[in-house]
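User: My collaborator and I are trying to settle a disagreement about how two of our proteins should look. Neither of us wants to argue from intuition anymore, so we agreed to look at predicted structures for both before our next call. Could you fold the first one, then the second, and keep them clearly separated?

Assistant: That sounds like a sensible way to settle it. I'll keep them separate. The first protein:
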Amino acid sequence: QVQLVESGGGLVQPGGSLRLSCAASGNLFRFNTMGWYRQAPGKQRELVATITTRGSTNYADSVKGRFTISRDNAKNTGYLQMNNLEPEDTAVYYCRLERTTYWGQGTQVTVSS
Protein backbone atom coordinates (compact mmCIF):
# COMPACT_ATOMS: atom_id res chain seq x y z
CA GLN A 1 0.00 0.00 0.00
CA VAL A 2 1.31 3.43 -0.96
CA GLN A 3 0.24 6.79 0.38
CA LEU A 4 1.31 10.11 -1.06
CA VAL A 5 0.98 13.22 1.08
CA GLU A 6 1.52 16.68 -0.35
CA SER A 7 2.41 19.72 1.71
CA GLY A 8 3.72 23.24 1.25
CA GLY A 9 0.80 24.92 -0.46
CA GLY A 10 -0.60 28.26 0.58
CA LEU A 11 -1.33 31.83 -0.39
CA VAL A 12 1.46 33.79 -2.07
CA GLN A 13 1.67 37.09 -3.93
CA PRO A 14 2.49 37.20 -7.64
CA GLY A 15 6.21 36.85 -8.12
CA GLY A 16 6.58 34.83 -4.94
CA SER A 17 7.78 31.28 -4.37
CA LEU A 18 6.56 28.08 -2.80
CA ARG A 19 8.07 24.64 -2.38
CA LEU A 20 5.74 21.67 -2.47
CA SER A 21 6.68 18.30 -1.00
CA CYS A 22 5.27 14.86 -1.69
CA ALA A 23 6.07 12.27 0.95
CA ALA A 24 5.52 8.65 -0.03
CA SER A 25 5.05 5.60 2.15
CA GLY A 26 5.86 2.09 1.03
CA ASN A 27 8.57 0.89 -1.30
CA LEU A 28 7.44 1.96 -4.75
CA PHE A 29 8.61 5.55 -4.80
CA ARG A 30 12.21 4.93 -5.81
CA PHE A 31 11.14 2.64 -8.66
CA ASN A 32 8.69 5.00 -10.35
CA THR A 33 8.66 8.22 -12.25
CA MET A 34 6.95 10.88 -10.17
CA GLY A 35 4.67 13.56 -11.55
CA TRP A 36 3.16 16.80 -10.32
CA TYR A 37 -0.24 17.78 -11.69
CA ARG A 38 -2.58 20.66 -11.03
CA GLN A 39 -6.25 21.39 -11.43
CA ALA A 40 -7.68 24.88 -11.48
CA PRO A 41 -11.38 25.55 -10.84
CA GLY A 42 -13.45 24.63 -13.87
CA LYS A 43 -10.48 23.15 -15.71
CA GLN A 44 -9.14 19.69 -16.36
CA ARG A 45 -6.23 18.33 -14.39
CA GLU A 46 -2.98 18.99 -16.24
CA LEU A 47 0.55 17.68 -16.04
CA VAL A 48 3.04 20.16 -14.60
CA ALA A 49 6.28 18.19 -14.45
CA THR A 50 7.73 14.70 -14.20
CA ILE A 51 10.99 13.27 -12.95
CA THR A 52 12.26 9.77 -13.66
CA THR A 53 14.02 7.51 -11.20
CA ARG A 54 17.32 8.67 -12.66
CA GLY A 55 16.44 12.34 -12.44
CA SER A 56 15.44 13.17 -15.99
CA THR A 57 12.86 15.92 -15.97
CA ASN A 58 10.09 17.18 -18.19
CA TYR A 59 7.97 20.34 -17.80
CA ALA A 60 4.83 21.85 -19.19
CA ASP A 61 5.62 24.85 -21.36
CA SER A 62 3.69 27.12 -19.00
CA VAL A 63 6.09 26.46 -16.10
CA LYS A 64 9.44 26.03 -17.84
CA GLY A 65 12.08 28.25 -16.34
CA ARG A 66 9.98 28.92 -13.23
CA PHE A 67 9.36 25.50 -11.66
CA THR A 68 11.89 22.83 -10.73
CA ILE A 69 11.00 19.24 -9.92
CA SER A 70 13.34 17.11 -7.83
CA ARG A 71 13.34 13.99 -5.71
CA ASP A 72 15.19 12.40 -2.82
CA ASN A 73 14.79 8.65 -3.08
CA ALA A 74 16.46 8.09 0.29
CA LYS A 75 13.70 10.15 1.89
CA ASN A 76 10.91 8.83 -0.36
CA THR A 77 10.06 12.43 -1.10
CA GLY A 78 9.54 14.53 -4.19
CA TYR A 79 9.55 18.29 -4.50
CA LEU A 80 8.29 21.06 -6.71
CA GLN A 81 10.04 24.40 -6.33
CA MET A 82 7.84 27.12 -7.80
CA ASN A 83 9.32 30.55 -8.43
CA ASN A 84 7.94 33.71 -10.00
CA LEU A 85 4.41 32.50 -9.39
CA GLU A 86 1.58 33.94 -11.43
CA PRO A 87 -2.17 34.11 -10.70
CA GLU A 88 -2.63 31.53 -13.47
CA ASP A 89 -0.72 29.04 -11.31
CA THR A 90 -3.57 29.00 -8.79
CA ALA A 91 -4.77 25.41 -8.51
CA VAL A 92 -4.81 22.31 -6.39
CA TYR A 93 -1.50 20.53 -6.91
CA TYR A 94 -1.26 16.75 -6.82
CA CYS A 95 1.63 14.32 -6.93
CA ARG A 96 1.40 10.93 -8.52
CA LEU A 97 3.49 7.84 -9.08
CA GLU A 98 3.32 7.52 -12.84
CA ARG A 99 1.77 4.39 -14.33
CA THR A 100 0.09 3.61 -11.01
CA THR A 101 -3.19 4.55 -9.40
CA TYR A 102 -1.45 6.31 -6.53
CA TRP A 103 -2.25 10.01 -6.13
CA GLY A 104 -1.90 12.39 -3.25
CA GLN A 105 -4.85 14.26 -1.80
CA GLY A 106 -3.71 17.61 -3.17
CA THR A 107 -2.50 20.90 -1.75
CA GLN A 108 -3.99 24.28 -2.60
CA VAL A 109 -1.79 26.96 -4.14
CA THR A 110 -3.30 30.41 -4.45
CA VAL A 111 -1.43 33.25 -6.13
CA SER A 112 -3.08 36.57 -5.44
CA SER A 113 -2.29 40.08 -4.33
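The second protein, kept apart from the first:
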Amino acid sequence: QLQLVESGGGLVQPGGSLTLSCVASEFTLDYYAIGWFRQAPGKEREGVSCTSTTGGGFRPDYADSAKGRFTISRDNAKKTVYLQMNGLKPEDTGVYYCAADRILECGSYYFRNYRRLGVWGQGTVVTVSA
Protein backbone atom coordinates (compact mmCIF):
# COMPACT_ATOMS: atom_id res chain seq x y z
CA GLN A 1 0.00 0.00 0.00
CA LEU A 2 1.23 3.46 -0.89
CA GLN A 3 2.58 5.51 1.98
CA LEU A 4 3.62 9.16 1.90
CA VAL A 5 6.12 10.96 4.12
CA GLU A 6 6.44 14.75 4.13
CA SER A 7 9.44 16.76 5.26
CA GLY A 8 10.94 20.22 4.90
CA GLY A 9 8.70 22.28 7.13
CA GLY A 10 10.04 24.78 9.62
CA LEU A 11 10.04 28.34 10.84
CA VAL A 12 10.69 31.03 8.24
CA GLN A 13 10.39 34.79 8.17
CA PRO A 14 7.87 36.52 5.92
CA GLY A 15 9.23 36.71 2.40
CA GLY A 16 11.34 33.61 2.90
CA SER A 17 11.31 30.28 1.12
CA LEU A 18 10.90 26.62 1.93
CA THR A 19 10.86 23.44 -0.11
CA LEU A 20 8.65 20.61 1.06
CA SER A 21 9.20 17.03 -0.02
CA CYS A 22 6.76 14.16 -0.22
CA VAL A 23 8.38 10.74 -0.60
CA ALA A 24 6.28 7.80 -1.70
CA SER A 25 6.79 4.15 -0.87
CA GLU A 26 5.54 2.86 -4.24
CA PHE A 27 8.03 2.26 -7.03
CA THR A 28 6.10 4.59 -9.32
CA LEU A 29 3.79 7.55 -8.94
CA ASP A 30 2.74 7.48 -12.57
CA TYR A 31 -0.85 6.54 -11.88
CA TYR A 32 -1.48 8.90 -9.01
CA ALA A 33 -2.59 12.48 -8.79
CA ILE A 34 -0.46 13.98 -6.02
CA GLY A 35 -1.57 17.04 -4.13
CA TRP A 36 -0.39 19.40 -1.42
CA PHE A 37 -2.88 20.64 1.13
CA ARG A 38 -2.59 22.74 4.23
CA GLN A 39 -4.58 23.27 7.38
CA ALA A 40 -4.26 26.31 9.59
CA PRO A 41 -5.35 26.15 13.23
CA GLY A 42 -9.12 26.29 13.46
CA LYS A 43 -9.59 26.22 9.71
CA GLU A 44 -10.61 23.65 7.15
CA ARG A 45 -8.02 21.86 5.09
CA GLU A 46 -7.47 23.53 1.73
CA GLY A 47 -5.78 22.59 -1.49
CA VAL A 48 -2.54 24.29 -2.44
CA SER A 49 -1.25 22.51 -5.52
CA CYS A 50 -1.53 19.21 -7.33
CA THR A 51 -0.20 17.34 -10.31
CA SER A 52 -1.31 14.46 -12.49
CA THR A 53 0.74 12.56 -15.03
CA THR A 54 -1.98 10.61 -16.78
CA GLY A 55 -0.94 10.00 -20.35
CA GLY A 56 2.68 10.84 -19.64
CA GLY A 57 2.19 14.57 -19.23
CA PHE A 58 2.80 16.81 -16.25
CA ARG A 59 -0.17 18.96 -15.43
CA PRO A 60 0.18 21.12 -12.35
CA ASP A 61 -2.61 23.15 -10.83
CA TYR A 62 -2.53 25.75 -8.08
CA ALA A 63 -4.94 27.38 -5.71
CA ASP A 64 -5.23 31.12 -6.24
CA SER A 65 -3.33 31.71 -3.00
CA ALA A 66 -0.35 29.77 -4.38
CA LYS A 67 -0.18 31.03 -7.94
CA GLY A 68 3.00 32.91 -8.73
CA ARG A 69 4.65 31.93 -5.43
CA PHE A 70 4.58 28.12 -5.20
CA THR A 71 5.87 25.54 -7.66
CA ILE A 72 5.09 21.84 -7.61
CA SER A 73 7.46 19.37 -9.24
CA ARG A 74 8.07 15.66 -9.19
CA ASP A 75 11.08 13.41 -9.55
CA ASN A 76 9.78 10.00 -10.49
CA ALA A 77 13.17 8.36 -10.07
CA LYS A 78 13.21 9.48 -6.44
CA LYS A 79 9.47 8.88 -6.01
CA THR A 80 9.26 12.39 -4.64
CA VAL A 81 6.98 15.37 -5.17
CA TYR A 82 8.23 18.80 -4.13
CA LEU A 83 6.54 22.04 -3.25
CA GLN A 84 8.81 25.06 -3.62
CA MET A 85 7.34 27.96 -1.69
CA ASN A 86 8.64 31.49 -2.20
CA GLY A 87 7.44 34.80 -0.85
CA LEU A 88 5.94 33.15 2.19
CA LYS A 89 3.34 35.07 4.18
CA PRO A 90 2.06 34.59 7.73
CA GLU A 91 -1.22 33.30 6.27
CA ASP A 92 0.73 30.39 4.75
CA THR A 93 1.25 29.02 8.25
CA GLY A 94 -0.20 25.58 8.85
CA VAL A 95 0.33 21.86 8.63
CA TYR A 96 1.12 20.83 5.06
CA TYR A 97 0.03 17.43 3.87
CA CYS A 98 0.58 15.56 0.67
CA ALA A 99 -2.06 13.23 -0.67
CA ALA A 100 -2.40 10.76 -3.51
CA ASP A 101 -5.28 9.28 -5.40
CA ARG A 102 -5.62 6.97 -8.38
CA ILE A 103 -9.12 8.05 -9.36
CA LEU A 104 -9.52 11.78 -8.95
CA GLU A 105 -7.57 13.95 -11.36
CA CYS A 106 -5.72 17.07 -10.28
CA GLY A 107 -7.80 20.22 -10.40
CA SER A 108 -10.40 22.19 -8.50
CA TYR A 109 -12.58 19.08 -8.03
CA TYR A 110 -9.59 17.32 -6.48
CA PHE A 111 -9.12 20.21 -4.06
CA ARG A 112 -12.80 20.42 -3.12
CA ASN A 113 -13.15 16.67 -2.57
CA TYR A 114 -10.02 16.14 -0.52
CA ARG A 115 -11.92 13.91 1.91
CA ARG A 116 -12.18 11.32 -0.86
CA LEU A 117 -8.45 11.13 -1.52
CA GLY A 118 -7.06 7.71 -0.80
CA VAL A 119 -3.68 8.25 0.83
CA TRP A 120 -2.34 10.96 3.15
CA GLY A 121 0.97 11.69 4.77
CA GLN A 122 1.38 12.67 8.39
CA GLY A 123 2.03 16.36 7.62
CA THR A 124 4.86 18.81 8.15
CA VAL A 125 4.50 22.11 10.01
CA VAL A 126 5.23 25.43 8.31
CA THR A 127 5.35 28.56 10.44
CA VAL A 128 5.80 31.97 8.82
CA SER A 129 6.56 34.55 11.45
CA ALA A 130 8.90 37.40 12.17
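Some points you might bring to the call about the second protein. The first helix runs from residue 108 to 112. The chain is about 5% helix and 45% strand.
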